[in-house]
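Thread: sanity check for a docking pose with 2-acetamido-2-deoxy-beta-D-glucopyranose

Original post by kr_44:
Hi all, I'm comparing my docking run against an independent structure prediction. Below are the sequence and the ligand SMILES. Could someone generate the full complex and paste the structure tokens? I mainly care about where the ligand ends up relative to the chain.
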Amino acid sequence: MAVIQAFSFFLAAVVAQSTIGGLSGSHTDIPRWCGKPYQSGSPNYDPGGMLKPPTPSPTPMLYVQIEPRYSIYDSSETTGEFLVDASLSYTHGTPYRNATPSDDGGNVTVPFTVLEFDIRLEDSDQLLVSDGVAVNSSNNRLGFSFGDLQPRLTPYSVVLYGAPPASYANQSYTATTELWYLPAKNNGSTVKVDNLNGGLSVANNVSDYAFMPILPFGFYTSCSGYLNYSLANVSAYKDMGFNAINPVCAFADGDLGYLFDWMDETNLWYQYDMRGTFSNGLNVSQLTEQIPLVKDRSNLLSWYTADEPDGWQYALNQTRIAYDILKQEDPYHPTALVLNCDNYYFEEYSSGADYIMEDAYPIGIDPMYSRPWNTSCNETYGDCGCDDCIGDLRDVSNRLDDFFDYQLWLGQQEKPLWAVLQAFSGEGYWSRDPTPEETWAMMVLSFNHGAKGIMSWTFPTSETLGVAHGAMAKVATTSPVSTFLIGVPKPTGFSVPGNELLDVAYWVLDTQVLVGIVNLDYVAQNRTIVIDLPLATSSLVSQPWGSVNWAVGNGTLTAHGLAGLTTSFVVLDM
Ligand SMILES: *[C@@H]1O[C@H](CO)[C@@H](O)[C@H](O)[C@H]1NC(C)=O
Ligand SMILES: *[C@@H]1O[C@H](CO)[C@@H](O)[C@H](O)[C@H]1NC(C)=O
Ligand SMILES: *[C@@H]1O[C@H](CO)[C@@H](O)[C@H](O)[C@H]1NC(C)=O
Ligand SMILES: *[C@@H]1O[C@H](CO)[C@@H](O)[C@H](O)[C@H]1NC(C)=O
Ligand SMILES: *[C@@H]1O[C@H](CO)[C@@H](O)[C@H](O)[C@H]1NC(C)=O
Ligand SMILES: *[C@@H]1O[C@H](CO)[C@@H](O)[C@H](O)[C@H]1NC(C)=O
Ligand SMILES: *[C@@H]1O[C@H](CO)[C@@H](O)[C@H](O)[C@H]1NC(C)=O
Ligand SMILES: *[C@@H]1O[C@H](CO)[C@@H](O)[C@H](O)[C@H]1NC(C)=O
Ligand SMILES: *[C@@H]1O[C@H](CO)[C@@H](O)[C@H](O)[C@H]1NC(C)=O
Ligand SMILES: *[C@@H]1O[C@H](CO)[C@@H](O)[C@H](O)[C@H]1NC(C)=O
Ligand SMILES: *[C@@H]1O[C@H](CO)[C@@H](O)[C@H](O)[C@H]1NC(C)=O
Ligand SMILES: CC(=O)N[C@H]1CO[C@H](CO)[C@@H](O)[C@@H]1O
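Reply from moderator J.T.:
Ran it for you. Here is the predicted complex with 2-acetamido-2-deoxy-beta-D-glucopyranose included:
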């Protein structure tokens, strides 16, 4: 995180010796962040590790993918779902011909518009689903029953065999995935990732082990400067509106059981932070020691392994090694990490996470010139505190967009993204704190660009920023807003012609739509602003966030003037 980055000169040298392997070989002795030399006088060179969009093929391919709706199921559940994609893609998949022999002897061809398939357990060949989906459709939900499937602590391998319907069809497609069907627990917690909508679903003693969807919202929080004092401090944090926390301490730091007991007692969901202990180089003995101390606690939300592994240039396999150990020792919880770099070995580092966090901190930086190190910053050189940033609120949404693009380029099933927002300043890079208005703008931008959780750096922050975060947390984690944010796969963003500084996105659920609006202009506009929604709408239901005097027409939102940095969430009937 930021605080550690200040010491990156000292530590990078240590890291270089102990853990770097295979990274741009001969430059490992130069202090670097995100692979870029940042000390004045260091030579400039290509840091490597940069993803580029794949070259499109001239004709579309059929890209068939399958994954379970939830990262895990347990034996308290009798039915599950698979998500099946049959997308036409110019970058991934296998050859597709939009013609398939007809059933009528095979001489005549008909268009290939439906993919029929069986989904089976690989080992036993047991049939789970037999169905079909339209070619070029995605996120199709296919229900199935667990029947007499044995719950177990290892995943089942699942395979999909697909083809056009006709019996003479000569095109075929396969896709594989893993299905976890675990014995239900009656202690601790069980947490699953919703692979369709991106939220988490949690079960523990408070819910009587029933799964409840949550949108996690909170802070990385100091243990020695706040959490270790009292249960009252933990309750006070929760009462501010937060449902989640990342205490920046671990059992390896001392006997902190009482502190985790307090969070269990208040039902505050924690990311268990092993930034300093998940791996000493590639020695994982501290990781394996900590797992049994934490895995059966009632508010364990997730395992947090690497803090900015890309910034530190940890060994490329380090996050995945920890991930595999965690899955084996505790399949009941997801694993997360935060990436600090814009585009540095994204695939390798993110392979160790079930959801990926980004921490672009744009407020008060000089994106062109590194004040702490007296160098310029560009794509290959320098550390300006926010990698490849423009020093604008949109650095946050750009980073989320980039991480979604990288996953698309890699042909991966999308992992949820969370935003780590700036609630601090200093360390030479950041000349000031964000204001509350900038904070809310970064939050709505994050949601508008698909973030499914917020975990800001760091608490205690200023009283003003603590209150600002709590105010949004109360709205974003409760209905109606949370119902949309984690009840829909991804918001649809669109631009408003003539108002390029408006960031607008919407989420449709049944007969209502949530619209998120951010005015990125710092200056008030004294003119009529009309947002044309690409949907028919009838009336305003509520404005859970903001106080814009919106007039609602059929498919339009109209405001006579907007204050600088206005943010608003409105719910409309369709
Ligand atoms: C991980 O990478 C390091 C450095 O590249 C290498 O020495 C080590 O053998 C790798 N470990 C595994 C388990 O692949
Ligand atoms: C980036 O900055 C370094 C150091 O000033 C310089 O050598 C290099 O040419 C610059 N690269 C680009 C792409 O501007
Ligand atoms: C298919 O074509 C072959 C050769 O042209 C022909 O002999 C056969 O009768 C045709 N079958 C049908 C069902 O039209
Ligand atoms: C496939 O669907 C996408 C959008 O979902 C659309 O943009 C594209 O044109 C479709 N491709 C074909 C070949 O129909
Ligand atoms: C599949 O069948 C079509 C029509 O009968 C034929 O043109 C095509 O070459 C065949 N493709 C393969 C891969 O056999
Ligand atoms: C929690 O339950 C699991 C099995 O359901 C059991 O293996 C484990 O020992 C229990 N842990 C505690 C701390 O009771
Ligand atoms: C919390 O930790 C700090 C730093 O280690 C220590 O000074 C303080 O006494 C601790 N507070 C309590 C109540 O344990
Ligand atoms: C849940 O269990 C924790 C201990 O793990 C306990 O502190 C808490 O009071 C329990 N909550 C309820 C509602 O039973
Ligand atoms: C791994 O680290 C632990 C301390 O965390 C140390 O006791 C142990 O000797 C190390 N193992 C190896 C093989 O270096
Ligand atoms: C905004 O515009 C209206 C009409 O053009 C004008 O009457 C009003 O004084 C303006 N307000 C500000 C704050 O400029
Ligand atoms: C709203 O607009 C849509 C077209 O955008 C139209 O189809 C619909 O009939 C309109 N509804 C009303 C109530 O005017
Ligand atoms: C919000 C809150 O209760 N903060 C308290 C945390 O603990 C310290 C030390 O006891 C108090 O000074 C804070 O007021």
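Residues 1-25 have pLDDT under 50 and may be disordered. Hope that helps with the comparison, let us know if your pose agrees.
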